Amino acid sequence: MFGRNSATPPPLHQPPPVLTFGLLPPARPQGSGQHYIVLRYIYIIADKRTHSGRRVPMAEGNISGSSTTGGVPIDTSFEPTLELARSPRQVQLVTLRTIYISAISVLIACAAGLIARALTALIGLITNLSFYGRFSFAFVSPADNHLGVFVILIPVIGGLIVGVMARYGSEGIRGHGIPEAMEQVLSGGSRIPARLTLLKPISAAIAIGTGGPFGAEGPIIATGGALGSLIGQLLHITADERKTLLAVGAAAGMTATFGSPVAAVLLAIELLLFEYRPRSIIPVSLACATAQGVRALFFGTAPIFAMSEVSEPRGYALGAYVALGAIVGVASVVATRVVYRVEDAFDHLPIHWMWWPAIGAVAVGVIGYFAPHTMGVGYDNIENIVNGHILGTALVVLFVLKFVSWAIALGSGTSGGTLAPLFTIGGGLGSLLGALAVRFFPALGMDVRVAALVGMAAMFAGASRALLTSVVFAFETTRQPLSLLPLLAGCTTAFLISSLMMRHTIMTEKIARRGGRVLAEYSADYLDQVLVKDAATREVVALSADDTLASVREWFGSGEPGTDHRGFPVEDDNGNLTGVVTRRDIFDAGVPETWQLRQIIKRPLAIVFEDNSLREAADHMVRERVGRLPVVIRERPHRVTGWLTRSDILDAHRQRLADASSPSRHIKIRKIRLHGSSSSPR
Fold this sequence. Notes:
Layout: E1 4-5, E2 41-47, E3 52-58, H1 96-132, H2 153-168, H3 178-187, H4 196-209, H5 217-234, H6 239-258, H7 261-273, H8 278-299, H9 317-347, H10 356-370, H11 379-386, H12 392-411, H13 419-440, H14 448-464, H15 467-478, H16 484-501, H17 509-513, H18 532-535, E4 541-544, H19 549-558, E5 567-571, E6 577-582, H20 583-586, E7 608-609, H21 614-624, E8 628-632, E9 642-645, H22 646-651, H23 653-661
Parallel strand pairs: 4-5, 7-8
Antiparallel strand pairs: 1-4, 2-3, 5-6, 8-9
């Protein structure tokens, strides 16, 4: 049977199968004296009421009366009979586990909403105690303090406390939270140490409450992510499900801070999940909706950056917003590079990093003495900027000094968020450019408020390259639908400029420096788009189960076509698949040459269907620890129609590479002569 090509078998007279494939009974033990019963038929029955598959042995001659649904009987009289064949698992978009994870996500979202409220109150308490000497949880700005030059000491004290907490508590509290969460997702199995759930919000509250130029959203996002990770470590769940819970906590924290549930979902997709799958999007979306409800209980439903109505952009205004986005995109690259240059400078200091936050806080205090509005969260600054209430010199001083203070403080390794500072800097720059355009180019029809809003979102889009998050965030926090088109234009341009000028982002540069790799593009798995039948080898070289090892080895020595293969399907006299053997099995020195091939089959049969995807086939190879699979069709799973190897899967990528890198023209233009006759196609 050497070199026999597998042909398509004649159609069976049985009805089509209901589920996957016929199951084959266990092999009869060779040389066993025990009684061994082989069931001739085994069905897979699909119970439509329970949606489950089950193996049902049928007594011979009583098939039709024993089943309620159609099935394909697999004749297992050929020797040796095998253990049940194993086929690839077909991926389900959602399962009952999705409901379970979603229920947990809703609880985490409730907790994240409470954490956001508690952290806001804690920041308010520390701000009131530090700058006003009063006991109050009211969320206030430190800008109205009357401490004079002594205001410089307040951020320094906060920096010292954060440094001590980082050294003796957890170094993980340093930084602005999102990159650390991303790193845990990418390389840490989404396992964030439990102590960060407590230390991160406390350290951030101290840093911000003592005047640090950060937003509260970063620590809240990081704390929510840490809570989700902690719950995921306590429960018996998979690493993928734990990643989802981490993203759930982070997205819920962002929602509870800004009241932007859709933007939070997009943030989870673009910066944490690195995927778009129903089993992760559903829990995250439900969590964000829940967190928005919790936020409404504490803060109401008004937008966090309330704006007066803006008009629809007309004429050349849209092009002007595109140009504004490009300029802000360049500024986002500069801002990112400056932050990491400052961080590098701190790395060269000859003192322990525990003291760095206090050193950086000196700059925060000095700048805060001259420009008090640069200290603290500064959400009021953002609202005033996008409403056009801060203009001229005051605007320039605010966003320039805010940038200097924030870059030094963040580079020193203290604890705080980046979103609010980026919004302040970008909004200020956008407002300035818009004001200049209105003064010198009034025909453009720009609105300073829209320019500020576009600058705010474009700065975040360029620095983080979270494009959709930036656009939707600006809309949700202001509720200005007519700003969507300028936002899309400006943010996309900033995203383009940033991608051209900078390999990594403000979120991923730190991860890259530590040797990690962050995906910059998300696309559908190419192997999921290719079917096995389109990639499998059709010229199958099958061996006979009755052949002895001696004859097979002799055939190998003949050098005939097919003898260079590394694996072979084994069939009985009727052409039914019984197993797979490899060259190693055949040339095993410990096996007598008189043995037949059926006797050296070592493992349960693993097969793949023609309508499986190559991704399912590749995953099946990994699970079964094999490098080749017989290809069958569901209607006749005992007949081989092809052969799939790892090389076939790799070869499938040739078309993908060609589509991505080989330009071609499919429509040819015919050149028309002056006299009306056409030349030959070019």
